[in-house]
Design a protein that fits this description.
Low-confidence stretches: none
Mean pLDDT: 93
Helix content: 25-40%
Number of strands: 17
Distance between the termini: 37 Å
Oligomer: single chain
Length: 357
């Protein structure tokens, strides 16, 4: 059997660059070497793409060797090239979290290049990444969401006091302030006073031109792994019990004691089934493909379930919830990656049946 030439894209320009290096290392280690010829393409923080020749993945984090002789170029309809020669890549694993990797920009470019890839396409990636659009669609579908206010940067700068008053009239402190299109809690703050709210808003606008202010929920944080295309499959649920004030970037990736992962989550079967059902509906409503992790809140006071967000390229590190929940459901990491590959091929073939003229 001929091996399949696959490329892992990793690194990138987002604030989640370091997470991507670790996720991609795990993916490379767990891809079945008897099935796949693996090519690594590292993307620097400035956006340059470098082919990694004779790489050595013996740590938990990949590096990026910046050799100008190995700069990668892309030609629409023709694929990836180094030094003018085709890399003959037949499939892409885009292990890029956040902006320029998870938000549809990369997916649209890969569509133009004409190479099948893992995960959602432009549409699903963009809608899932924009937390406001995801909420609008979920609300339209009758799915439960956390109450919010969205604010655009140019509007806030013209009249900040108006928006502070709007927030304070709708919500009691504390509130959460989030950039609309970041992941891994980058730029997210919890504000317990007007002064802290103003600081949090300024911080969030450093990462995006649109932000969300959300009601703070005294909640358990529960996560659900979902895979598939038109008929999504869910796995046992997991719970995050952060030791920090909330599950921020440091708790997720820096502090080894930042959170306790409870797998499976301690829930009655009725609640677990309800969450899994909502996860599948939320996944399909945004036209997600391949794989995602759907995050929920369960109000500790009322037991009310709310959708928090959906991640179309969740972390793949050794302590990431997505793959751990799949494993809890009987699907080990190499088998999971095989399925993600097959879903990507299926999605690509389905798109090729469409007519454009």
């Amino acid at each position: 059997m001929n091996k399949i030439n696959v490329a892992i894209l990793y690194g990138g320009k987002s604030g989640e660059h370091e997470v991507s290096l670790r996720s991609a290392s795990s993916v490379e280690k767990n891809l079945d070497k008897s099935k796949y010829n693996i090519h690594l393409i590292g993307i620097t923080r400035t956006g340059l793409w470098y082919y990694q020749q004779n790489y050595n993945n013996d740590t938990d984090s990949l590096s990026i060797v910046e050799d100008d002789d190995n700069l990668v170029s892309l030609t629409p309809g023709r694929g990836f090239h180094v030094k003018g020669s085709s890399l003959n890549i037949s499939f892409i694993f885009p292990i890029l979290h956040g902006t320029f990797g998870e938000d549809g920009t990369l997916q649209g470019m890969l569509d133009l290049v004409g190479i099948p890839y893992a995960g959602s396409g432009l549409e699903g990636s963009f809608m899932a990444m924009d937390k406001e659009y995801a909420k609008i669609i979920w609300q339209k579908e009758g799915l439960p969401i956390v109450p919010y206010i969205s604010i655009k940067k140019y509007s806030y700068k013209s009249n900040p006091q108006y928006y502070i008053n709007c927030i304070e009239s709708k919500f009691q402190y504390p509130v959460f302030v989030k950039p609309v299109k970041t992941g891994s809690s980058v730029g997210v703050s919890k504000a317990s006073s007007r002064e802290k709210l103003e600081t949090a808003i300024t911080n969030a606008f450093m990462y995006d031109h649109k932000i969300l202010i959300e009601k703070s929920v005294n909640a358990r944080e529960v996560e659900c792994s979902v895979i598939g295309n038109d008929e999504p499959i869910t796995f046992p649920l997991g719970e995050i019990a952060p030791s920090h004030e909330f599950y921020d970037y440091d708790a997720k990736y820096t502090d080894p004691d930042g959170a306790k992962l409870i797998i499976p989550a301690v829930l009655d079967s009725t609640t677990a089934t309800k969450i899994q059902d909502i996860a599948k509906k939320a996944y399909s409503a945004l036209n997600i493909k391949g794989f995602s992790r759907v995050d929920f809140f369960i109000d500790k006071d009322t037991d009310e379930i709310s959708l928090n967000e959906i991640n179309t390229i969740p972390g793949f590190t050794k302590i990431s919830m997505f793959s751990m929940l799949c494993r809890e459901g009987g699907l080990n990491f190499p088998e999971l990656l095989d399925k993600i590959y097959n879903y990507g091929i299926e999605k690509y073939k389905e798109e090729q049946t469409l007519k454009y003229n």
